[in-house]
Design a protein that fits this description.
Blueprint lengths: L10 H28 L3 H11 L8 E5 L5 H8 L4 E6 L2 H13 L6 E5 L15 E5 L8 H10 L4 E7 L3 H18 L9 H10 L2 E9 L2 E8 L6
Parallel strand pairs: 1-2, 1-4, 2-3, 4-5
Antiparallel strand pairs: 5-7, 6-7
Bound molecules: S-adenosylmethionine.
């Protein structure tokens, strides 16, 4: 007999995820059309450039959390990455990613999963070289839980893009948050402090190897320190 394990979620997080699914389902269609016409956004492009510049990319498995329509995965695959796994809360976004996967003929190298990263099983038996969190932690209230699961997957590299968290952004975030929560019936963009995110990763043997700002976005690259026993 199969046993079902119920993962309990605070009501507010449940509500947030339901609203996010709806919002990003609509957004994925727009994003996919933009990607096909114009390519990646500047921060997403930068992450793909950083990954493919490394020798490890060709034999690596990369996991894109909150992949939307899968654009970062496709650019990595087009540039020689061995395999990508994309996960997104929105079934609609994953449906679009699956259509693009067929169109680009990546059936044997791209895997997409619909569901919250916090719930899904990651479909790989191979080690994960890198994990990408591009503009995603700002879309979920439980950043700390997401990072803990990322760390448990033991990637060698973690790529994170976050909105600036200075005092001005914090101030305007409050009224904007109220408006978005009202119009989307529960979704609210999150401003997790960069300091908190750093402290979680640094505590787990990751080193910050790059930080870059583009307009309102900061991209950080962390690498696992390989401590050899003495
Ligand atoms: C702002 S969009 C960014 C999409 C994509 N990374 C990009 O840069 O275009 C945030 C995405 O994260 C997804 N998302 C939010 N929370 C998630 C979670 N817990 N698990 C998986 N995906 C999540 C949303 O559905 C949405 O597609």
């Amino acid at each position: 007999m199969t046993e079902t394990v119920e993962i309990s979620r605070p009501k507010s997080v449940e509500k947030h995820e339901i609203a996010a699914k709806k919002l990003f389902g609509k957004e994925a269609k727009r994003q996919a059309a933009k990607y096909e016409k114009k390519g990646l956004s500047s921060t997403a492009k930068r992450i793909t450039e950083l990954i493919i510049a490394q020798d490890t990319a060709k034999n690596g498995v990369y996991l894109d959390i909150g992949c939307g329509s899968g654009k970062i995965c496709f650019e990595l695959l087009k540039n020689g990455v061995k395999k990508t796994i994309g996960i997104d809360l929105s079934e609609k976004a994953i449906e679009i990613a699956e259509q693009l996967k067929e169109k680009f003929n990546f059936q044997d190298r791209a895997v997409f999963v619909a569901g919250s990263f916090l719930d899904v099983e990651i479909p790989t038996t191979e080690p994960i070289q890198g994990i990408i969190l591009h503009r995603v932690l700002c879309c979920h209230p439980e950043a700390e839980k997401i990072l803990q699961k990322v760390i448990a997957l033991n990637p060698q590299e973690i790529y994170i893009t976050l909105p600036t968290d200075n005092r001005i952004v914090r101030t305007i975030h409050v009224p904007i948050g109220v408006l978005t929560r009202t119009f989307t019936k529960g979704f609210q963009a999150q401003l997790h402090t960069h300091k908190k995110i750093f402290s979680i990763l640094l505590e787990h043997d990751y080193t910050l190897v790059l930080k870059e700002r583009k307009t309102l976005w900061w991209t950080y690259v962390f690498r696992k320190e390989n401590k050899t026993a003495v």
